[in-house]
Amino acid sequence: MTKQIEIKKTVCTFCSGNCGMLVHVDNGKIVKIEPNRSHPLTRGFACERNRLALKWLYHPDQLMYPLKRMGERGEGKWQRITWDQALAEIGDKLNDLKAKYGPETLGIFEGTARGNDYWPRGRFLSLFGNPHNIFAAGTICSANVMAINAAVMGDVSGFAGNINKSNCVVYWGTDPSQAWHRAWTAILNQKKKRDVKVIAVDPRRTKTTDIADIWLQLRPGTDTALALAWLNVIINEELYDKDFVNQWTVGFDKLKERVQEYPPQRVAEITGVPAEKIVAAARMYATTKPAFIPYSVAIDQLGLNGTRTEQCRIIMKAITGDLGVWGGDLITRPGQKINGGKFVTESELIMIDRLSPDERGRQMGADVCRLLSLTGWSLTSENIERVYGVPAPVGVQTNAHTPMLWRAILSGKPYPIKALIAWGSNPLSWAGNIKLVYEAMKSPNLELNVVQELWMTPSAQLADYVLPGASWMERPMCSNMMDFGSLVVGGERPIPPLGERRDIYEFFRGLALAVGQGEEYWPWKTLEEASEYRLKPTGISFKEFVERTILFPDEFDMQPWLKTGFPTPSGKVELYSSILEKLDYDPLPYYAEPPESPISTPEVAKDYPLILNTGGTFMPMFKSEFMQRELGRVKHPDPLMDIHPDTAQRLEIADGDWAYIETRRGRIKQKARYNDGILPNVVNCEANWWFPEMSANEPVLSGVWESNANVLTLDEPEACDELSGGWCNRALLCKVYPVQ
Amino acid sequence: MTVGIEIAESELALSRARVYGILAAIYSKPVGDAELDVFRQWWLILVELVQGNLPELIICGLGKIQSCLENDDSNTPDKREATLQSEFLPLFRGLRRGTSPPPPYESVWVDGGFVYGPSADRVGQKYRQFNMRILNNEPPDHLALELYFMRFLCEKEAEARSSGQAVQHWLREEEDFLREHLAPWLPAFCESIRKSCETPFYSGVADITEGWICLDQEIIKGLTETEPLEGVLDVGPTTSR
Fold first, then answer.
1. Using CB atoms and an 8 Å cut-off, which of residues 489-528 of chain A contact chain B?
2. Buried b (16+ CB within 10 A) or exposed e, A507-542
3. Domains detected in chain A
4. CATH placement of domain B9-226
């Protein structure tokens, strides 16, 4: 028999990088995955995750068939059922609960799905009458960034840049050597070639701080104060771009007045960073053109200060004239034409207009974290629609308030949540304060819990139905990256889903039909057909798209505001945000002391004297994925806590010893890793650990209680970010002691 | 020990096919009580096949299964069905990591722990050679599919015998498939089932599976050596434990 290898073009979505891949298929089996060197954006880049892709896909623990719970939740007793049975039963139950409690009684859970097809669940919810009760890790991972960008300048910044053209890069709360390999490779190459300046802001030493020209080692959680001090320096020393400020911003005087509250000397006391270093860094950033501040997830996880830090960063980019220049912060806009027509956006497919303003106001948390809710989205979207002709990204720019959800399940207030559907999401790993998550998921108040997953995660173990999902190697993709911009990326389906897995479109379409939404709303039987529909206005077929792998807008206007103005109420970058004001927030950024700190809670600090940061990934781990021993833990088998050697020795903990880390919420253990580049009063725990090799059943639940830092994190509503509802994964108080 | 078998050759092949079919069905999905009853009858075939001189492992397995089927207050058909249902997926689909064996894919046991390994390729190629197609996109080397394939080969052998055609080809296929694809990993897998299962039923199934694969290799060996059969087959020493 002649061996015929087919080569399928697609993009990897193990992270959000969407690197072009060539997938070699032999008789329906993937035999090799190699980077696509002719991909116009990623040009042959691949990381360790790609090298593990085949082992990942063909891992024997991957789910293949629909399962229905037989015993108690968590008991691990399942029966295999058909998709038809699963969808029929789930659909009936959803309709029943909707009739009793209203459509808002359903919550959808999602992680960093990265297939970029968020619209099927959005469309399902709109047609169900649900106010988009979407509880997502996005709240602490970029959704808030999109929302504050939309409020302040209407466009999105921070996600696109060109390091090869940058003369200064600010890694603020991120270590690309572990989190973003493509960017890391780029900055290393540039550093070798020329004098590109690097500024790192991080409480602990990393590979990134090692290559930095200036490293600001701040006290965790004080980032907003630091950012305001930079603004103080930039404004008072007149290092800003006066033309841009005059022509394209509003509220400069009020901002100037606000930043006077944050002189470097005062901020030095808050952050622990010497004032002269703060000044030097601000000067370097403002005077080394062009400069780029890439996105970093750590900022989103600061609780009270999360989105405010991002607001400062947007303001910095704007007033220094670094927006829309090569090497600076590129802005992205949805709705631009491709081949003379507009690719149909996610927001258009989501049909949010099916929901009245009153119905949107029922979104969980809409009156609390108003910016990230549909309330905030409605305000920003009208400007974006005015300028671009398409709604603002509703798919990922709005989230319900996750900490409220658990309390609503348990208390029935503000209204009962009776059903959850999670797709590719493991909240027992990523959500804050997971003891509460567990309590809610076990509660009899929760009458239906459905999980679509690739693995039997601890969260899936507590479900009533577990349905197998398809990975990026088993589904096509044709996406404008969640409406972030107008670029269309993706590829074909390399192989049909293994076993009985289904992609996310097929899942939600099946569910929609099961609750009676009607085929007229779901006319496309497959994701390929839906992709054809989205491409139709461009005149480009799905097949041609696959060949090209990427579609660029007809015009790439670096500074589109010159023609259209910014899509904000004033048409300018609103340093003093009228949208925040309308939402009854302070329109200007300000610093709030972290809710748990030696300063705000000195009585707690007596018993819990160390400052705890959680997070910091390692390759190839991504969020809570790649935790299988055979995959992501070959070189990194155990969870690690960075601790200063002096502190550790005082606590009688040797390098490599297991140690307990305890907060007021609970206790975990991780192995101590000496790091003389971390502040002596700070420890850093890796996040999201679970142990797939351990028993999946109660009470073990794949070891989710052993080392997962979210046992420790803080999600009290008053501690959360007022703008987004983001909870505190950073800047907590803890104590550390040896495991005896 | 010598086991005497007095049975027409085509009937012998069909009976062996039925045994493989029963085993395959058991590994395919959880069994209900009605099916169990049918299976019990088929076990009688097994007994008849070797005229009561069953290997100890199979006797032991049949005993475990029989004990499972005896009704009392704590073991009603409903309870039994529920228990077998909940046992099935952890044991045969790898759903209880940490306490259950890896799922019964040959690749997982032979090729380093992952599905769709080289063994699966070879098995898939073998199926294609006989124009067999797998439904539901299942990896071809799942134990149930490999047992079904053995049933298919035995049925083909029976057909050949009935129509007076040569059977050496089919015997060789059976022998090769057992040697290359089932025998190398089944003992380890069956041992892990015995260690992991909570009810005697699947422990008994593991005993019978392991015992049967050994026994059938002996039967095939005997058939190959004595072909054409004269109605009586002497099977050499059987495995016992």
1. 496-500
2. bbbbbbebbebeeeebeeeebbebbbebbeebebeb
3. 6-57 (2.20.25.90), 67-141+334-551 (3.40.50.740), 157-330+559-582 (3.40.228.10), 602-738 (2.40.40.20)
4. 1.10.3480.10
